[in-house]
Specification:
alpha+beta; Dipeptide-binding Protein, domain 3; 8-stranded mixed sheet; 15 strands; 3-stranded antiparallel sheet; 16 helices; 445 residues; globular
Length: 445
C-alpha cells in the first residue's frame, strides 16, 4: 500500500520508470518488526499523517497463510519482484476476502454487483442487516426507478438531479461537504501508438501531437474556457465550490488563490499564440474523456467542448465516456489528452492531495506527463517537516505553481448527496468518505 510505503521508507513507489528500485524490498522488510504481541514501525523520519493512515484500510491485517494460499507473496524477499504490481484487475485478493469482521463477502461480479452476508459467528454484536447487495447500475433513470419502487434502499444521485429526488415521497436526502476534488487534467505526454484519441497525431487539423498540452498557451486557453460559476450554480445545483487547486477547503494550509476567470477572449488569445500560431491556423481534433455514469463530469466535458469549439470552426472535440474498469488502465497508458477524474481523501492531510496530482510519480501527476524537480522537492519538504510554518510555506509554493503552470482545472469540490428511503436508519457519514463507502453495522430498515 503506497501510503504505508512512503511512511516507512520515504519512497512513494516501489518502481521508477517502470523498474523496481534496487533494495526497496529489503528496505520495507527492515522497517517493520514483530516483537511479541507488538508490531513496531521504524520510520526514517517523522511522518505527520501516520496515525490517520493506520486507521484507514491500509492499516488492515490479512492472514498470511490464507493470503499465500490464494496467490499472494510467499514471504521470501528473493521472490518479491515477481509479486510486485500485479496486472490491473488480476490482483490475487481482488474478489475474495478473509476476516471481514461482522460481514463476509459472498459474491463479487465485476461491473455487476457484490453481496455481503452477516457473519453469525462473529465474536461481537451482530449487525442489524442480514444481507447487503450493492449493484452497479450506470443508468440514472434505472437507479431512480429502483429507488422509487423500493427496490433499492439507497442510490447514487448525480447533483444535476437533486430536484428530481427532492420531490419524491418516502425519500430522505443528506448533504455533506466532502474532502474530495474533481479535475480536468491535461496529459502533456500522450502515447500515440494506435491512439484514436489524438486523431492523426499531428497538428494538421485532423488530430493533435502527443505533446499538445506541453504548450502552456493551450493549457491556459482551456483554463479560461471553464465557466465555473455556471457549473456550480446550474450543473451541481450549488452543491459544490471552486477550490482553484487540489488543496481543498477543510485541509490544513489551504490559501486563497486567484482563479482563471471564464473569459473566451483570453482563451482565444492563448489559442492564437499556441504552437507559434499553428493551432489557430490548422485547427485540431481530439477527445475529452470521463467515466461512465458521472453526469457532472460529462457536463464539464461538454462545457469545455462547446466553449473551445466556439472559438474557431477548425477546433473539434469529441466527448467520450468510458467504463471505470477500462478508464484507469487507459489513463495509466497515457491514452487521453484530457481526462476528468476525482480524488477523495485517504487521510485528511494536504500531502494526500498535492502528491497524487503534482508529483512526477503521483497517481495522476505521473500520467499527466508532468515532471518538475522543484515540485518534487517541495512535496518532500511538505511531508518531511512536522513544523507547521515550514509545511505551510511548502504547500503555499505548490499551490502557486499549480496556478502558474496551469496544470489542470480543479472543477469543483463536492457537497455529496446521500439519498436513502426514509425507512433506513442508523447511518453515519464522514466528510472523508464518498458514496462508495457504506457502513452496515448500525443500519436498520
Amino acid at each position: 500500500m503506497w501510503m504505508m510505503l512512503e511512511a516507512l521508507t520515504g519512497e512513494g513507489n516501489t518502481r521508477k520508470d517502470g523498474k523496481i528500485i534496487p533494495g526497496i524490498f529489503e528496505k520495507i522488510d527492515k522497517s517493520i518488526e514483530a516483537k511479541g504481541n507488538k508490531v513496531i514501525l521504524h520510520l526514517p523520519k517523522a511522518y505527520p499523517p501516520l496515525l490517520g493512515i493506520l486507521c484507514y484500510s491500509s492499516g488492515s491485517v490479512v492472514d498470511k497463510e490464507w493470503a499465500i494460499a490464494n496467490g499472494c507473496w510467499d514471504g521470501n524477499i528473493a521472490n518479491a519482484a515477481k509479486y510486485n504490481k500485479p496486472a490491473e484487475g488480476k490482483e490475487p485478493l481482488r474478489t475474495i476476502a478473509n476476516g471481514t469482521g461482522p460481514y463476509k463477502l459472498r459474491l463479487w461480479e465485476t461491473s455487476k454487483q457484490f453481496v455481503f452476508e452477516r457473519f453469525d459467528d462473529y465474536w461481537g454484536a451482530k449487525p442489524k442487516i442480514k444481507t447487503a447487495i450493492v449493484k452497479y447500475v450506470p443508468e440514472h433513470a434505472t437507479r431512480i426507478l429502483m429507488l422509487k419502487a423500493g427496490d433499492a434502499d439507497r442510490v447514487h444521485v448525480g447533483k444535476t438531479f437533486l430536484h428530481e429526488v427532492a420531490a419524491m415521497k418516502g425519500v430522505k436526502i443528506t448533504k455533506l461537504p466532502q474532502l474530495a476534488v474533481t479535475g480536468a487534467l491535461f496529459c502533456q505526454k500522450i502515447d500515440p501508438t494506435g491512439n484514436p484519441s489524438i486523431g492523426s497525431g499531428k497538428l494538421d487539423g485532423e488530430g493533435i501531437p502527443p505533446d499538445f498540452f506541453s504548450d502552456i498557451n493551450v493549457r491556459k486557453a482551456f483554463m479560461h474556457a471553464y465557466d465555473g460559476k455556471t457549473f456550480i450554480d446550474e450543473v451541481v445545483n450549488g452543491l459544490g465550490s471552486l477550490p482553484g487547486t487540489p488543496l481543498i477547503k477543510g485541509l490544513a494550509y489551504k490559501k486563497a488563490m486567484p482563479m482563471y476567470a471564464f473569459d473566451l477572449k483570453k482563451s482565444e488569445a492563448y489559442m492564437k499564440k499556441a504552437w507559434g500560431g499553428k493551432v489557430w491556423e490548422k485547427g485540431f481534433k481530439m477527445i475529452i474523456t470521463h467515466n461512465t455514469g458521472r453526469e457532472e463530469r460529462e457536463a464539464a466535458a461538454m462545457m469545455l467542448k462547446e466553449n473551445i469549439e466556439s472559438l474557431n470552426p477548425k477546433f473539434r472535440i469529441e466527448v467520450r465516456n468510458v467504463d471505470w474498469k477500462d478508464y484507469m488502465p487507459a489513463i495509466r497508458q497515457y491514452r487521453y489528452p484530457i481526462f476528468i477524474i476525482g480524488w477523495g481523501a485517504d487521510y485528511p492531510d494536504p500531502h494526500n492531495f498535492m502528491y497524487p496530482y503534482m508529483s512526477s510519480n503521483g497517481t495522476y501527476g505521473k500520467y499527466m506527463g508532468y515532471n518538475n524537480p522543484a515540485v518534487d522537492g517541495l512535496l518532500k519538504e511538505g511531508i518531511e517537516n512536522v513544523e507547521p510554518d515550514k509545511r505551510a510555506a511548502a504547500y503555499e509554493k505548490l499551490q502557486n505553481i499549480w496556478y502558474e503552470d496551469a496544470l489542470g482545472i480543479a472543477l469543483f469540490q463536492p457537497m455529496e448527496l446521500f439519498v436513502y428511503r426514509d425507512y433506513v436508519k442508523g447511518y453515519d457519514r464522514n466528510p472523508m468518505f464518498s458514496q462508495t463507502v457504506e457502513f452496515f453495522w448500525n443500519l436498520t430498515k
